[in-house]
Design a protein that fits this description.
The chain has one domain: Response regulator (Rossmann fold), CATH 3.40.50.2300. Helix content is 34%, strand content 14%. The protein is built from six helices and five strands. It has a five-stranded parallel sheet, with helices on both faces.
Length: 178
């Protein structure tokens, strides 16, 4: 497992977006990180922050909170606190509502289904992989235990999904969900 104790200690509030890094991209991109392990979340945020592309990470720690964010309800009813993400990084083993159930709900919603969802998990189970793709995950990625590999993985995910990947314009804005 990844040891983040030597890297840094997470101190950010969950409701505040991570500050964008220096931008060369045309528009800042919003990323919804759904991760209950705070050490993993902090490491992912650190890896995104070290990149040159502009992005804002919104971190939620359970499946219910993810759905509230996506549907702009509960603590996320204020639209400025929950802009439409350009990418969702979703763990599977989540409290309250598990990742597969979150994925099922969002991929069966016409307004949310175009948002790319990358399963980012420690599970290498073939059953989990099949279940994720049966629910229309866009990718399934197992978190490497080595820090350098993990950083490279995040760099490549960010480059592909936020720079090279294209979705229809009507779904690509960081606007609120209708």
């Amino acid at each position: 497992m990844i040891d983040t104790a030597d890297v840094f200690t997470p101190t950010r509030s969950l409701l505040k977006p991570m500050p964008p890094s220096s931008a060369i991209a045309e528009k800042p991109k919003n990323i919804l990180l759904v991760e209950d392990n705070y050490a993993h979340a902090a490491l992912i945020e650190h890896c995104f922050d070290s990149q040159f592309l502009s992005s804002t990470i919104y971190h939620v720690a359970d499946g219910r909170e993810a759905l509230d964010f996506l549907y702009q309800q509960g603590a996320y009813a204020e639209k400025s606190q929950s802009p439409r993400p350009h990418l969702i990084l979703l763990d599977l083993r989540l409290p309250k509502v598990n990742g597969l159930d979150v994925l099922q709900k969002l991929k069966s919603d016409e307004a949310l289904s175009p948002i790319p969802v990358v399963i980012l998990t420690t599970s290498e189970s073939e059953t989990d992989i099949e279940a994720a793709f049966a629910r229309n995950a866009n990718a399934y990625v197992v978190k490497p235990s080595d820090f350098d590999q993990f950083k490279r993985l995040i760099d490549e995910l960010k480059s592909f999904w936020l720079t090279w990947n294209r979705i229809p314009a009507k779904y690509s804005g960081a606007s609120s969900i209708p």
